[in-house]
Every structure is written in structure tokens, then in C-alpha cells.
Amino acid sequence: MANGLTVRRVKNETKKIALPLAFVRFIIKALLGWISLLTMSSNKKNQALHDLAIDSVVIYKE
Q: pTM for the full model?
């Protein structure tokens, strides 16, 4: 958790994503790069393509 950011499941934001899903998310993020980040403004929860692919959301935790 860097700077209070954490990746959680969309359906239950109290649960962290599993390690295999985190790896898949990283691979998608690395392959798509900026294209993935540009999609963040197109949905309510500001999810990038790599978040949509594994049903995750990045939240700020104080």
C-alpha cells in the first residue's frame, strides 16, 4: 500500500484481490500502458482497463 492506495474487489471493497489476479492485472497494465489509463474517465469508478478486466478498484485508504 503506497500513499494510502490499495486495490480491492469491486463487489466487496473490504477484500483484497488474490495474488494471481494481481499478477494478471500487472501484465495487462504493462502490455496496454497508457491505453489502459486513458479509459479511466469513461466509467463511474474511474477504473482502467486492467481494473475492469479483473473486477477490481483502486481506493484511497486513510
A: 0.81
| Across 9-18, average pLDDT | 92
Q: Report the DSSP pairing between strands 5-9 and 56-60.
A: antiparallel
Q: Where are the beta strands (DSSP E) in 1-62?
A: 5-9, 56-60
Burial class (CB in 10 A: 0-12, 13-18, 19+), 28: middle
Q: Which domain holds residue 29?
A: 5-60
Indicate the number of domains in the chain. Answer: 1
Please name which of 2, 45, 53, 48 lies closest in space to residue 23, comparing C-alpha atoms: 53
Q: In this structure, what are the phi and psi dihedrals at residue 60, rounded to the nearest 5 degrees?
A: -95, 125
